[in-house]
Amino acid sequence: MVKPLIQKLEQFAKLSDEDRQVLEDAARDVKVIGPRQDIITEDDEPNDVHLILDGWAARYKMIPNGDRAILAYLIPGDLCDIHVTLLNQMDHSIGALSTCRVAFIPRQKMDEIMRRDGQLGRAIWWSTLVDEAILREWLVNMAHRSADKRLAHFICEMLLRSKAVGLTDDDSFELPLTQEELGDTMGLSTVHVNRTLQDLRAQGLITSRGKRLIVNDVDRLFEFSDYNPNYLHQVGGHKRDR
What pTM did the predictor assign? Predict the structure, then answer.
């Protein structure tokens, strides 16, 4: 059941059979959350850490004028709010974008896991540091890249993150996002997102089939977006020739 999380953590360290069982035992309380429903909302005082098992979710904040800023995407294997073991109140919301299966891990149980000797606790801290690295890269993406490179960079990231947890077929993956959601991520209007996607298709960089996005040439897309995957810290990940 927690296979995506194990695959993700084993990019950092090989887990023992005992480690894997600890994760399985911790993630037994599973709920299905429908699309466009919140998993947890800002100002909540959570009792659980949430682990995405299936589906896509987003970390977001609502702006007083009613706009939404999407701060991160969460896919299978992602722990949404591990910081609740230290902080007592959510400063943002997490919402399901597609139907999600979510494991609710009691914060006390997660605290015990984090304190374990050996590789498991260190691997979970590693995943938290990678989340922070992704946020830093998103800040650079928003501030310093043109719209087409911004969107191409995002596609590169989600391809590699999906591949790391076994969610790709060759160089294609499910991207269950609306153009409005992409706009809330990129700081672009829906019209601008549509135009940018058309431009990437016209250049032969991507193709889409329903909610599935196909990267036609990964190296070309990397080069086009100046993509460097080092911030994902994936062992054996895609490396550009230098």
Answer: 0.92
